[in-house]
Amino acid sequence: MTDTGPAIVASRLNHWFGRGEARKQAIYGVDLNVARGSLTVLMGPSGSGKTTLLTLIGCLREVQEGSVRLLGQELADAPERRLVALRRRLGFIFQAHNLHESLTARQNVLMGLQVKPLRDRTADSATAAHVLGLLGLSDRLDYLPANLSGGQKQRVAIARAIVGNPDVVFADEPTAALDRDSGVNVVELLRRMGRARGTTTVMVTHDNRILELADRIVTLEDGRIVGDTSP
After folding, report:
1. Contact 199/40 with Cβ under 8 angstroms?
2. Burial class of 88 by CB neighbour count within 10 A (0 to 12, 13 to 18, 19+)
3. What does the radius of gyration of the chain's CA atoms come to, in whole angstroms?
């Protein structure tokens, strides 16, 4: 049976870094429900816990205390096989594009489909080209990263994250390297995916230019949620 509840449910979530006297709490009792198909923005000053929270609910960091249910699956004390299976349903976009320098733009995007079984290579190549085209890179399909600008590399990384139609996209400052038009285009694409396919997006950003596109803005300060509103 398909789970139709929230995409993400975090309850009484706490997190610490370090040990002993150096141990410092970074997340304090966070409760957060994220609806499927929504575009939620996490905002707050540097050091407020935005990226830490993103990695906790995104299956990239161990849940120390509290509960996180992602796509209906509990992450706290979850076996590795469950985490691996969940990660195959997710897309990740980070500030560091992490492209393979020896692969072309299209080949880098194709890596986003490798986790999917029984793929048609010809169809996959066409899909990769289509997604790159949506991001304005139709004329850069066969370029190596060394021949792309910083903004173009970031758009390739975004294409790689969404090419497999993930259930949830986690994005950490995805528009930081993009000009205004490119940044708005990316966020509009993520929002369309939410409307058309039910893709959920959780995005950390300082980019005020794209706030009006969000369904919801959650503000953190000192590891706590201090604001939760629609634009």
Report:
1. no
2. middle
3. 18
Half-sphere exposure of 120 (CA within 13 A, CB side): 4
128-136, long-range: CB within 8 Å, 24+ apart, which pairs?
128/159, 128/163, 131/159, 131/162, 131/163, 132/105, 132/106, 132/156, 132/159, 134/159, 134/189, 135/159, 135/182, 135/185, 135/186, 135/189, 136/182, 136/185
Per the CB < 8 A criterion, the answer to whether 60 and 90 are in contact is no
pTM (two decimals)? 0.92
Is 139 in contact with 156 (CB distance < 8 Å)? Answer: no
Instruction: Tell me if 208 sits within 8 A of 130, measured CB to CB.
Output: no
Give the length of the chain.
Answer: 231
Q: Which residues, including other chains, have CB under 8 Å from residue 98's CB and lie 6 or more apart? A: 157
How does 44-61 read in b/e, with b if 16+ C-beta sit within 10 Å? beeebbbbbbbbbbbbeb
pLDDT tens-place string over residues 109-166? 999 887 666 567 778 999 999 999 999 999 999 999 999 999 999 999 999 999 999 9
